[in-house]
Amino acid sequence: MNFIKEPLAKFIKLETSGSIVLFLATVSALVLANSPLSDSFLNFWKIYISINLPGLELSKPVIKWINDGLMVVFFFLIGLEIKRELILGELNNFKKASLPFFAAIGGMVFPALFFIVLNYGQPGSEGWGIPVATDIAFALGILQLLGKRVPIGLKVFLMAFAIIDDLGAIVIIALFYSSNLVWEYIGIGMLIVALLLTLSYKGYYSKYFFFLMGVVVWVLFLKSGIHATIAGVLLAFTIPIKRKTNTKTFYNNVKKELDLFLADCDNNIDQTKILTENQLSALEEIEELAEKTSPPLQNLEHSLHGWVSYLIMPLFAFANAGVVFNFSGDTNLGLSANIALSMIFGKAIGIFLFSFLSIKTKLSALPDKISYKMIGGISILGGLGFTMSLFINNLAYTDQAFIDSAKMGILIGSIITGIVGFLVLKAALNGVEKNEMS
Q1: Rounded to whole angstroms, what are the CA distances from 244 to 200, 204, 237, 372?
Q2: How many Cβ atoms sit within 10 Å of the Cβ of residue 271?
Q3: Scanning 47, 200, 261, 338, which has the fewest C-beta atoms within 10 Å of its C-beta?
């Protein structure tokens, strides 16, 4: 089971350490937005950057290059994670996926309904998708604060329903937050995706060709009206997960090349500076063997995690989390409250209720060493929807007052769910320790 536990441990460690950088970026944005540098900070993201190529012109403000460009990499990584989980992980059969699946469904339906009811008859109703998603980085970061007492099954449950949650958010963005669609561009983009899927299925994969085609699909989706980040998810599903070389063959061939490398050491005049031609050839062969042995999906996921966790998500938060707390007449406090309440109560009730009902109806099973109190704590923690909520906020509203009001609600809701979820989980784990001692 090490081949599952070790990547899982690395994933959790990377996500939780990345959440610290994400938190610092968020705090920095809030401080700058409410400081004497506020105007300079907020106006910087509105500066236009243009790319002019023959037959192509792209001109967008800095914040759009981040949200429509860099965040495609974030969504691409989510797509890779979803595909891996569907094929090899916690979502590859109904028995393992049922509990997080039902939890995710409840965690999407109830917050949306809460917001629709609370905001009924008031402006800003199009923001119903904002409280739907869970921020896995922050949620895992808070869970990690509780230390080794947290059962691994609880972390897996959180990760699994958060990944399904992300998939649901992606579908919502595609269906409800895309407008003025240009079907010709969408059709061409989907044909390219279909071509890449066919090549992947047939066993052909070139990272350079797939990257080039990926850029073309991104531009087509950007021009089509469907949000460009959807291209990232679709392209992720074209990346093959199968290896060309098995591990035993890899070992035998690498050993042979290393023997040749070692045998040529005596012919090397200066072993501290240069290599012989034979040694260079051996290294190139080993590099090629390593590339064939590492599954492209797993290799890309491993390569991108650091960039997404430590650069892209913090930069997104730094650009989008800056809200001025002035409570002026333009601030819609009702909208802020409705979003926060939907995140706090809608998520907690939806996740827990659907999890409880699926267990009681025997559609799912309560994982080992996990109590209903722990599920309750995770349900509250699931309301922490920072990154994806901010992203949907920018799609839902065009009025800056609504965007800023929604940001306030997202920040308030995320802070409260994070603190309360932590305290409930801590109490549940303390209760388990006391029972074990008695």
Answers
A1: 12, 10, 18, 44
A2: 11
A3: 47
Which of 203, 167, 189, 176 has its CA nearest to residue 75? 167
Fill in the DSSP letter of residue 325.
-
The superfamily CATH assigns to domain 2-178+311-433 is Na+/H+ antiporter like domain (1.20.1530.10)
How many angstroms separate the CA atoms of 299 and 316, rounded?
A: 24
Instruction: Judge whether 357 and 102 are in contact, CB under 8 Å.
Output: yes
45 pLDDT exceeds 60?
Answer: yes
Query: Nearest CA to 261 among 289, 284, 294, 233?
Result: 284
DSSP helix/strand/coil, 49: strand
Helix (H) or strand (E) holding 48: strand 48-53
CA angle 182, 54, 64 (to 5 degrees): 55
Phi and psi, residue 111, nearest 5°: -60, -40
Per-residue b/e over 277-287, b at no fewer than 16 CB within 10 Å?
Answer: eebeebeebbe
CA atoms within 13 A on the CB side of 340: 17
pLDDT in tens, 375-422: 999 999 999 888 889 889 988 998 888 998 999 999 999 999 999 999
- Exposed, middle or buried, 275 (CB in 10 Å: 0-12/13-18/19+)? middle
Highest mean pLDDT among 165-174, 221-230, 306-315, 348-357 belongs to 348-357
- Residue 41 CB neighbours (<10 A): 19
pLDDT tens digit string along 300-334? 888 888 888 889 988 988 988 888 877 666 678 89
Kindly give the residue spans of alpha helices, DSSP state H, lying in 119-151. 136-144
DSSP 8-state symbol, 366: P
For residue range 341-369, what is the model confidence (pLDDT) as tens digits? Answer: 999 999 999 999 999 999 999 898 888 78
Core vs surface per residue 63-81: b (16+ CB within 10 A) or e: bbbbbbbbbbbbbbbbbbb
Considering only CA atoms, which of 91, 66, 67, 79 is closest in space to residue 235? 79
CB 163 within 8 A of CB 85: yes
- Which positions ≥6 away from 31 have C-beta within 8 Å? none
Residues 6+ apart with CB under 8 A from 336: 405, 406, 408, 409, 412
Is the dihedral angle over the CA atoms 211, 216, 217, 222 positive or is it negative?
A: positive
- Structural domain boundaries in the chain: 2-178+311-433, 247-290
